[in-house]
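2.7 Reproducibility. Because tokenized structures are sensitive to small changes in the input, we list the exact sequence used for catalase, including any N-terminal residues retained from the expression construct. No trimming or masking was applied before prediction.
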Amino acid sequence: MIRKQKDKQDQLLTTASGIPVGDNQNSLTAGERGPVLIQDYHMMEKLAHFNRERIPERIVHAKGSGAYGHLTVKHDISKYTCAKLFDEINKKTECFVRFSTVGGEQGSADAERDPRGFAVKLYTEEGNWDLVGNNTPIFFIRDGVKFPDFIHTQKRCPMRHVKDPNMMWDFWSLSPESLHQVTILFSDRGIPATYRHMNGYGSHTFSMINDKGKRVWCKFHFKTNQGIMNLSANQAERMKGEDPDHAQRDLFDAIERGEYPSWRFCIQVMSEEQAEKVEFNPFDLTKVWSHKMWPLIDVGVLELNRNPVNYFAEVEQSAFSPSDVVPGIGFSPDKMLQARIMSYPDAQRYRLGTNYQQLDVNRPRCPYENYQRDGQMSQGFGGDQPNYDPNSIQGTPKENREYNEPALDIGHAIVDRYDHRKGNDDFTQAGDLYRLMTDDEQQRLVENIVNSLKNANKVIQERQIVHFYNADHEYGERIAKHLKLTLPKKQGVKTT
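Resulting structure tokens (single pass, no recycling of outputs):
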């Protein structure tokens, strides 16, 4: 519940050590497009504290389902990447995939209106590659410093311990960058019917590097071969009562029957030169890349064909970290990705223990050597070898600079906290998506939003309506009519 402060000045936001916070909306970056600097302690403290707020289930994606399978390469993309898993046609790489809801607890229903996690662990010959995404190509925010705040709005009110629409819509109405994802969430695709009948996306912008050191930017897509199927709002309400675990049951039973689900694995590729000239920030997680300008390139097929035999050991203890990329795959200045690179492995060390990579489901299938020793759940890795580097002992692990990525030129960047909304259009793509929908799809979108937004305070409703109106006049007017609201004469809203 959001309480209004009467006749009081706003309190000063500080760190846990009492140090005043000058900017809680923008991370500290080298240049307007990043990357994020590790010296941004405020962001680090927020994310590290956030990772430790719940014991023992995951903070997000707590309820999930998983299965094993393989990725089979069908097309040559060696001109883009030197990653060895792509170096032969028909090459198969073992994988483990975990699907999940985002906001609910372990006992929550599978039919909630919520994004779905789509995390893929590929056990390659050069280490594990974790592609940790969702069933949507975008997200609600574009800066990781806001992630704990956003997830708090999707969880329970800290006083009443119930979900509170005021928290959710208050944040969204003050964060117009969320509008594109909100439009997807309340559309017909907001509640996937099963995990098998939805797409998956890496969502972030990543990089690919070929054997000549040439870098391109890329996005990863998994397109379901089962077809898209979704639940209506009424169907979802009924399903939550009849079978709250329906998605888990469906995935497991389909694999047991030999009906192995599969997805087309595709990429979009953008050159560094194109990224410099494109009118929007290509590293912005709230934006999609036009398929007309950057068409999907087929790579292979992902198939799931083996169920876990112990849910806790293999699904609950599976750990995914966007920091795990293999040679030939790299990061980008995407601010959300940069935050997740640090935050996810930190969460796994807290939740599972220091040596979570030694658990069988997370263990690389290729040889691996390092100088990490001891800690919770250590399996005695390393034997009598030294636990330091450099050392003069022959046969110990040594670095190989051939695996270094080529330098990334970010120009003469000035380190500052850049307003991520300045120069960003948060409305056009959401409006484009609305206008692509049929009349029936638009009607259901409006009804879904109204049924949720009507539970929020009127001042929040009025603030949020402006965002819908700015995306498309009809979009905003239809929602306003249902809520019996009058649109202000002058559109626009001040956000912080």
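The chain has two domains: 28-178+189-367+414-421, 427-496.
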